[in-house]
Automatic annotation (TrEMBL):
<dbReference type="InterPro" id="IPR036511">
    <property type="entry name" value="TGT-like_sf"/>
</dbReference>
<feature type="binding site">
    <location>
        <begin position="92"/>
        <end position="96"/>
    </location>
    <ligand>
        <name>substrate</name>
    </ligand>
</feature>
<keyword id="KW-0808">Transferase</keyword>
<keyword id="KW-0328">Glycosyltransferase</keyword>
<comment type="function">
    <text>Catalyzes the base-exchange of a guanine (G) residue with the queuine precursor 7-aminomethyl-7-deazaguanine (PreQ1) at position 34 (anticodon wobble position) in tRNAs with GU(N) anticodons (tRNA-Asp, -Asn, -His and -Tyr). Catalysis occurs through a double-displacement mechanism. The nucleophile active site attacks the C1' of nucleotide 34 to detach the guanine base from the RNA, forming a covalent enzyme-RNA intermediate. The proton acceptor active site deprotonates the incoming PreQ1, allowing a nucleophilic attack on the C1' of the ribose to form the product.</text>
</comment>
<dbReference type="GO" id="GO:0005829">
    <property type="term" value="C:cytosol"/>
</dbReference>
<keyword id="KW-0479">Metal-binding</keyword>
<keyword id="KW-0862">Zinc</keyword>
<feature type="binding site">
    <location>
        <position position="316"/>
    </location>
    <ligand>
        <name>Zn(2+)</name>
    </ligand>
</feature>
<dbReference type="GO" id="GO:0008616">
    <property type="term" value="P:tRNA queuosine(34) biosynthetic process"/>
</dbReference>
<dbReference type="InterPro" id="IPR050076">
    <property type="entry name" value="ArchSynthase1/Queuine_TRR"/>
</dbReference>
<feature type="active site" description="Proton acceptor">
    <location>
        <position position="92"/>
    </location>
</feature>
<dbReference type="InterPro" id="IPR004803">
    <property type="entry name" value="TGT"/>
</dbReference>
<feature type="region of interest" description="RNA binding; important for wobble base 34 recognition">
    <location>
        <begin position="283"/>
        <end position="287"/>
    </location>
</feature>
<feature type="binding site">
    <location>
        <position position="228"/>
    </location>
    <ligand>
        <name>substrate</name>
    </ligand>
</feature>
<keyword id="KW-0819">tRNA processing</keyword>
<feature type="binding site">
    <location>
        <position position="318"/>
    </location>
    <ligand>
        <name>Zn(2+)</name>
    </ligand>
</feature>
Length: 374
């Protein structure tokens, strides 16, 4: 047993409430997943993430492969134990990070040869190797190795990228199914194992996206992601792609949009029927002093907050807003104190996770189709 997906409620707009039963956690969806690139959601301790209600976080295969190394993590009991995170976890395939190394990589049918951004050393990722690394890391959910299509990309480029992604998806799935029982979990999980999601690509071409989704569904992955978004395209195109692909994905499996987005985006996509989303925005923006609040975005570094004794967000009940003033948060940023990035990140994550909690309640309240638990 790996993943069980129980659909609880649906709405006329396509929104859905579900429970995703994973080895380490039952995740209530729709869910926002904080990004923990190198085994840490930047600047935020794991116990704080738990107190905020984070159900599932991400680990980055490329970065963890480079350091400390997947075999080191395997010997230490897997990523859950290594970072002391008892709840659910997903690892990406490394494909997006390799894609971002535009001048340090060479793509062939077999895989990608790339140079480390750390020391220039040469490495090779094939679909099989990506899966081997992810099995060693031991997250609840693995991702198929894909080739992320850049924006803008002409049709010939998108077709070639799709060809690679489909071939690599088949190889990823076959290798995963042959080796998924090799995951090492020291916890008593009663024979449960990992799951694998396929990734829909195809650039901004609707017919290529449809082809990608249909072919992946035929392969019968445990869940499906929509990738290749938030790579510089206008938001209207992002919405078009999601609207095109969602109806093609199975209703009885999780649907994940990768790398999105701002608060209003994740709220919109959740109401459309997206089950899972992730993004670095809440923590990255926080480190630069940008706070998301019920009153809009706040650049806490602005001088107007120098003597503001109010909380970052008067409507927020997070541990930061209960205790600290805008004036103090601004002071920390002005002094470049690390605590500033931590407190800002905690607030932003609380805001994002609170949005999803609110959407889940709204979808349940407005459900047109209650679905009996299986």
């Amino acid at each position: 047993m790996s993943l069980a997906f129980n659909l609880l409620h649906t709405t006329g707009s396509g929104g859905r409430r579900a429970q995703m039963h994973l080895p380490h956690q039952t995740v209530e969806t729709p869910v926002f997943m904080p990004v923990g690139t190198a085994g840490t959601v930047k600047a935020v301790p794991q116990d704080v993430l738990e107190s905020l209600g984070a159900q599932i976080i991400l680990g980055n295969t490329y970065h963890l492969y480079l350091r400390p190394g997947h075999e080191v993590i395997r010997r230490l009991g897997g990523l859950h134990r290594f970072i002391s995170w008892p709840r659910a976890m997903l690892t990406d395939s490394g494909g997006f990070q390799v894609y971002s190394l535009a001048h340090l990589r060479k793509v062939t049918d077999e895989g990608v040869r790339f140079r480390s951004h750390l020391d220039g050393s040469s490495h090779f990722f094939s679909p099989e190797h990506s899966i081997d690394v992810q099995i060693a890391l031991g997250a609840d959910i693995c991702m198929a190795f894909d080739e992320c299509t850049e924006y803008p990309a002409d049709r010939a480029r998108a077709e070639e990228s799709l060809r690679l992604t489909m071939a690599w998806a088949r190889r990823s799935l076959d290798h995963f199914r042959a080796h998924q029982d090799e995951v090492v979990w020291n916890d008593n999980l009663n024979g449960k194992t990992q799951s694998i999601f396929g990734i829909v690509q195809g650039g901004m071409f609707a017919d290529l996206r449809r082809e990608s989704a249909e072919r992946l569904v035929e392969m019968d992955f445990d869940g499906y992601a929509i990738g290749g978004l938030s790579v510089g395209e206008p938001r209207e195109l992002t919405l078009e792609v999601i609207s095109e692909v969602l109806p093609l994905l199975p209703k009885d499996k999780p649907r994940y949009v990768m790398g999105v987005g701002f608060p209003d985006e994740i709220e919109l996509y959740a109401r459309m029927g997206v089950d899972m989303m992730d993004c670095v925005i809440p923590t990255r923006a926080a480190r630069h002093g940008l706070l998301f609040t019920s009153q809009g975005r706040v650049n806490i570094k602005n001088k107007q907050y120098a003597e503001d004794q109010g909380p970052a967000d008067p409507a927020c009940d997070c541990m930061v807003c209960r205790r600290y003033s805008r004036a103090y948060l601004r002071h920390l940023m002005q002094c470049k104190e690390p605590l500033g990035g931590t407190l800002n990140s905690i607030h932003n994550l609380a805001y994002y996770l609170g949005i999803m909690q609110g959407v889940r309640a709204e979808l349940a309240a407005n459900a047109e189709t209650p679905v009996a638990k299986s």
